[in-house]
Amino acid sequence: MPKIPFSIAAIAIVLIGCQQNPSNSSTGNSLDSAIASKAISYLRTELNLSADLAIVAESQKKNPANINDLCQAMPPVEEGLEISLVAAGQRYILQTNADASKIELCHSEDAQPPTSSKYTGAGYLLRYPSDWQVTDLGLEPTGTSTVIFTPTRFTIPTEQSLDQILQGLQQSHQIYTAIAKRAVDNQSISSDLVASEVPKDLITTPLDTQSRGFKSGTKRRFNTSRKDKSGSEKIGNIEELTFVTEQFIYTIRHYQPSLQPDMAATRAFEEFVDSFTLIP
């Protein structure tokens, strides 16, 4: 089951009886690592979040006694804590008693900065930098549905095959992230999107993806050499994540034209991966 839709459903039930107090003064906002750790463990378990998903403790403040606040872990006559956690672009507000032996999840809200946009693809959702170009290649004769995201405006010849398009981007030293959805082939679940590509220094790692609604997942990281338009050989880096369900293979492929990574593009790729969610 996809994690984000599940969390929204779970929170919606709690939200009915959840009333938030007005913000306290700045006193008591320092983070207690032990309390934060308990809150993070609770959220991961409550929403069945993957062990690889980063959860950040954003803030913590005292929560005074309030008999009108129905969303609380402590009795209404006791003081407690309110903790804000951020995971996969969502901010989660939790309340605890003084030692966090009791914890309640109150509500969630979008924690993404205004520079991030939501994209709805063929059976999935994700977030991407708003200033990146989005090119939907549609459905190929092979049955592959692909979307390409680039940080700069780039004319992509959509009449070409996916293999030709990706080779062209790499020859032009263009950073890109491509999201491809394909039907499962009974004979192979290969993640190769560029047939002529020969991976160098390949590292393959299995991923724990069942909590995100997939049967299996794999991460491949490798270098690739290609001649540019001047004939010079250039070495780039590719990171490729493949997620498999009963019917489909989803591949998230990120290319950087240099072995020295562009950190802004790397952070954008992390956002693609962390926010990638199946539509039920």
At CATH level 3, the topology of the largest domain is Protein Transport Mog1p, Chain A
Measure the end-to-end span. 8 Å
Rounded radius of gyration (Å): 22 Å
Question: For the residues shown, what is the average pLDDT?
Answer: 82
When the domains are counted, the total is: 2
H/E series: HHEEEEEEEEHEEEEEHE
CATH class of the largest domain: Alpha Beta
How many DSSP E strands? 14
The biggest sheet, with number of strands, parallel, antiparallel or mixed sense and barrel status, is: 7 strands, antiparallel
Structural class: alpha+beta
Instruction: Indicate the percent of residues in helices.
Output: 10-25%
Strand content: 35-45%
Q: Would you give an account of this structure?
A:
The chain is of the alpha+beta class and 280 residues long. It folds into 2 domains: 3-110, no CATH class; 116-278, 3-Layer(aba) Sandwich (Protein Transport Mog1p, Chain A), CATH 3.40.1000. Helix content is 18%, strand content 38%. The chain is built from 4 helices and 14 strands. It has helices at 3-15, 33-46, 162-171, 263-275; strands spanning 55-63, 80-87, 90-96, 103-110, 116-120, 124-129, 133-139, 145-150, 176-183, 200-207, 216-227, 233-244, 248-256, 277-278. The protein has a 7-stranded antiparallel β-sheet with strand order 7-8-9-13-12-11-10. A 4-stranded antiparallel β-sheet has the order 1-2-3-4. A 3-stranded antiparallel β-sheet has the order 5-6-14. A hairpin with an 8-residue loop joins strand 10 and strand 11. The longest helix is centred in the N-terminal third of the chain and has 14 residues, at 33-46. It is elongated.
